[in-house]
Amino acid sequence: MAHESHKAKEFSYCPYSMSCYVENTCFSLGLCAERTAINKAMSEGYQKFKAIFDLEDRVIAPCGACRQVMREFGDMPVFMTKVDGSYTTMTLEELLPLAWGTEYLKK
Fold first, then answer.
1. Higher confidence at residue 102 or residue 77?
2. pTM of the model
């Protein structure tokens, strides 16, 4: 999966950073790599995810917005991977404790 994450960076639009981010000069309108991957997968019919891989030069955790979006799909492991192959793994519960979820919505 780390290899596939690295390949995905080739198709990103990111003139301001080095990830598979979809950037915009108005930073709040951009989409991080994690949300871009989830949105693309959802648009292709996928609804369940086993894990999320982040690939950077250093270990970087997903932003809060990405953590919340990932939360919709369960407490999957998040692999924060460096290009040298080393990584740190945490669950979404560890990264976003007491997160808001669908269980709080009235049916």
1. 77
2. 0.72
